[in-house]
């Protein structure tokens, strides 16, 4: 039988107590104070857990959420990339990878596990507007990947112009949701277009 991490158990207990003793109704926002959750053997990060009762309940019952806690990934989207990698035979040792919109870093984690080999060949560059706790084997750049200064910083890490290349550009970025589907869809399309344009410049 698998034992869940203490962080999930505490979350479950808090939600249960609020439902039983404070008459919290479904749909009412529940905010739980920041706590440290282990994301690796050395790295820790504080994650604020906030949402409705439905959201918290869904998180508690989601097997991928439980698995990512047990295996030390930043978020459940790590398994989405693993599925893509296995299906299309991507991310091999020694590759150079750029991860756009990388925060909180789960895709960069998966990439580093697969491309960084014993000889320290391979490179993973994580780019995001938000700074997040460091990851083993990942070089982090805080900036807007559509801006020239950020692109120049990435190019400098990739080497001289004659030898510069990228094997794979990853992008799981998402805009802040506005609540308006058409507007949010347009924002997603714009990010895809920007990421595609980025691949032509590095």
From TrEMBL:
One of its GO terms (molecular function) is rRNA (uridine-2'-O-)-methyltransferase activity. Gene3D superfamilies: Vaccinia Virus protein VP39. It comes from the Eukaryota. GO terms for cellular component: mitochondrion. Keywords: Methyltransferase, rRNA processing, S-adenosyl-L-methionine, Transferase. Residues 73-201 form the Ribosomal RNA methyltransferase FtsJ domain. One of its GO terms (biological process) is RNA methylation. Belongs to the class I-like SAM-binding methyltransferase superfamily. RNA methyltransferase RlmE family. This is rRNA methyltransferase 2, mitochondrial. The lineage of its organism: Eukaryota, Metazoa, Chordata, Tunicata, Ascidiacea.
């Amino acid at each position: 039988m698998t034992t869940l991490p203490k962080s999930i158990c505490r979350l479950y207990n808090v939600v249960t107590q609020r439902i039983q003793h404070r008459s919290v109704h479904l749909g009412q926002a529940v905010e739980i104070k920041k706590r440290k959750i282990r994301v690796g053997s050395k790295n820790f990060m504080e994650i604020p857990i906030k949402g409705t009762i439905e959201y918290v309940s869904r998180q508690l019952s989601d097997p991928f959420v439980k698995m990512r806690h047990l295996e030390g990934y930043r978020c459940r989207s790590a398994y989405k990339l693993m599925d893509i990698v296995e299906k299309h035979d991507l991310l091999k040792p020694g590759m150079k990878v750029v991860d756009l919109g990388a925060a909180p870093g789960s895709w960069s984690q998966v990439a580093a596990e697969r491309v960084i080999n014993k000889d320290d060949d391979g490179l993973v560059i994580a780019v995001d507007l938000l700074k997040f706790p460091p990851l083993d084997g990942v070089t982090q750049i805080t900036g807007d990947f559509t801006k020239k200064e950020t692109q120049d910083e990435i190019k400098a890490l990739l080497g001289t112009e004659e030898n510069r290349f990228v094997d794979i550009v990853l992008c799981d970025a998402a805009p802040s949701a506005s609540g308006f589907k058409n507007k949010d869809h347009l924002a997603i399309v714009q990010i895809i277009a920007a990421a595609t344009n980025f691949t032509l410049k590095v």
